[in-house]
Write a structure and sequence with these properties.
67% helix; 105 residues; HTH_ArsR_DNA-bd_dom; ArsR-like_HTH; 3 strands; alpha+beta; DNA binding; transcription regulation
């Protein structure tokens, strides 16, 4: 999985949904299955991919496997996006000015 681009991994909507669930708190596989439209094998497959990419980690608690989010790889994406924020800020500033000008009329 090391050769797989993190953007490719995050492009899959079910994986993003699982990460959203784990952002709230640590969860067992069964709980993720209950919250999603996927079967247990489907959730397990996506969790394996996320784990191999370093986006989640797992610990065993008795019979349960508990997954939690690892945010560090997401920080790498944030760093990559940093130069683009200037573009967004410029566009948002222009929109704000346009809306203010509309209010003044």
């Amino acid at each position: 999985m090391k050769d797989t681009n993190i953007f490719e991994i995050l492009a899959e909507p079910n994986r993003r949904y699982i990460l959203d669930l784990l952002r709230e708190r640590e969860r067992a596989v069964g709980e993720i299955v209950e919250q999603s439209v996927l079967s247990q094998p489907g959730v397990s497959k996506h969790l394996r991919i996320l784990r191999e990419a370093g986006l989640v980690e797992v610990r065993q608690d008795a019979q349960r496997h508990l997954y939690r989010l690892r945010a560090q790889p997401l920080a790498e994406i944030d760093t990559w996006l940093e130069p683009y924020r200037q573009f967004w800020s410029t566009q948002l500033d222009a929109l704000e000015k346009f809306l203010d000008d509309e209010d003044d009329e």
